[in-house]
Amino acid sequence: MKKRNFLFLLFCFLFLVFAACSNNSVNSGPDNGTAGSGENQDSEAGKENNEDQEDEKDYYQTPEMDFDMGGKTIKWVSWYDEAIQEDNPDSIQKKEILDALMEKHNFQIEYVIVDYAEYADKVTSSLLAGQPIGDIIRLARPWMIPTLTKQDLFWPVDEYTDNDHVFLQQYTDNYSQFEGKGYGFRAGILGASSGIFYNRTLMDSLGMSPLQGYVDEDNWNWETFIEVAKKANKDTNNDGKLDTWGLATASLLVQALAANDANLAVENKQNLEDQKTIEALNFLSQLSTEDVARPTEGGDWTEPAQFFREGNTLMYAGSDYEMDSFKEDMPDYDIGFLPFPKGPSAKGYSSHNTIPNYLTIPKTVEHPEQLLYIYEKMNDIESIYDYPQQNSFETLFSNEEDIENAKLAGETINVVDKEEAYPSMPFYEFQGEILEGTSVTTVVEKYKEPFQSAIDEVWKQ
């Protein structure tokens, strides 16, 4: 009996010793960065270790890794130059970190630029041939999902993007999702803030209440938007014709869908009959049938912006970066910016994106975790700015309210799928019939099958 008790106590003592040794070991990540179940265990242990060090960082960071890339040149492919420009203190920090990483891990980076007009074809051809033109390749979602992704041509990156101080989770968890895995990653900003530019000078001359008040009162919605537009439709010289208008165009289907958390397609199904989509279509129909917007004069897609530049149109739907050209072309006018008004089913203000893009790593590239590690570390800086787009917004906008509106509009960006994702989708014909006054019910019934056919062409090939 005593012997049995002794053996039991000895076993407990050895168990405690082994447990203590295991807990005290330092997890610095796999030496060679190879993937596998052992790496996953190391990663989880690293997360716990990192979370315990709250005095250093209040967010998760991938534990330090030790690897030698043997002088490899990483080819980073995009349709624009993605080299760090060192044009502000943040980018200088990033470049210094990258230089240190290159020395420590023994690699170089070559930034490869491919013309946008040829980009999708060249990248796709190289991937299908098993010889991708780069190790890190920027891709737009419609170019890879589902056609290329279902051929197992990319590494999923979910397990490497937990650092939300660097990685925009929406791009991995939403925009690049396919069959439960995320294949894209991105740092920086979600995208451009889209909303409503408005002419404060014209607003004042028409004796209208400041439009900012609607946002301040949380009452900037489709109903108040239409009211404002109608108030600005005036015949100021009493010649029987309108000479000021409230809205540059009624062709706002994409903006309306995004502003109501709606989409024309959900994965591999058309979504025209969804209530949120119907609400967006009814809004578009109201703009048309009630003559809310300035009528077209037969111009192309640039016509609405040209109308706004004339100074006699109150509102124009556009994106933040257009402010530079408005300031240059309209020096005598005070131009403001508002988020696009909220739809009835929306939780908040939203911007739109029809072709989200992000970085990917081809499956033929070895050690994707090393590339993600390098990308994370070079972007994991303490910014001198109060928010990601401070430098840009303070350059574009001189009014603090406009800056806050641009920040608000960019907090959520909803993707709207149309012909970029589904080439056979009759998007413009569909929108055109709504704008011509055909009832929403009739248009939905007519186009739901053509929309589904266009979606099937992509998902079932």
Automatic annotation (TrEMBL):
The record's listing under Pfam families reads: SBP_bac_1 (PF01547)
Claim: Protein biosynthesis is one of the keywords in the record = no
Which residue ranges are recorded for the region named Disordered?
29-66
Entry keywords, A to Z: Cell membrane, Lipoprotein, Membrane, Palmitate, Signal
InterPro entries reported in the protein's UniProt record? Bact_solute-bd_prot1, SBP
State the coiled-coil residue ranges: none
The residue range of the signal peptide is: 1-19
Entry annotated with the keyword Glycoprotein: no
Quote the Gene3D superfamilies the UniProt record gives.
Periplasmic binding protein-like II (3.40.190.10)
* Cited PANTHER family: ARABINOSE-BINDING PROTEIN-RELATED, POLYGALACTURONAN_RHAMNOGALACTURONAN-BINDING PROTEIN YTCQ
Report what the protein is called.
Answer: ABC transporter substrate-binding protein
Q: Which species does the entry assign this protein to? A: Lederbergia ruris
